[in-house]
């Protein structure tokens, strides 16, 4: 399940996803950027710390080439119950998120979003390729390859040095 044979793409830039309003977004627009891809939820115990720190990192590094891509997911105890637009409004209003919030996705199971099949095949975590919970984070280099995966309990600020290294900031 989730083996690399079923994921022919070599870069996240080869995918098209939908934004919170259902418009297609070609991820090739992020070529040359360092990406942090996160499955988010508004009603999770990790919501406040993660959104707060993601916003802080984004404000600090967006001008150096960091982009955060947030994908709402309702697979874990139904902690993202509203629409994709509700999730976007929540993140942008409560946490001043200026980074893109995409359409809700499934990150595990038979209907896993293709971009998440790629991410999971690129870096296994504690539970193999499966996503353990909300706020699993993938750090992606400027060429579109996954360079690290962080679990839900890993706060975004704790790997700021990894982001700086990917951005080539001394």
TrEMBL record:
Keywords: Oxidoreductase, Peroxidase. The lineage of its organism: Eukaryota, Viridiplantae, Streptophyta, Embryophyta, Tracheophyta. It comes from Jatropha curcas. It comes from the Eukaryota. Belongs to the glutathione peroxidase family. The keyword Oxidoreductase applies. InterPro entries: Glutathione_peroxidase, GPX_AS, GPX_CS, Thioredoxin-like_sf, Thioredoxin_domain. It holds the Pfam family GSHPx. The active site is at 44. GO terms for biological process: response to oxidative stress. The keyword Oxidoreductase applies. GO terms for molecular function: peroxidase activity. This is Glutathione peroxidase. SUPFAM superfamilies: Thioredoxin-like. Residues 6-168 form the Thioredoxin domain. One of its GO terms (cellular component) is cytosol.
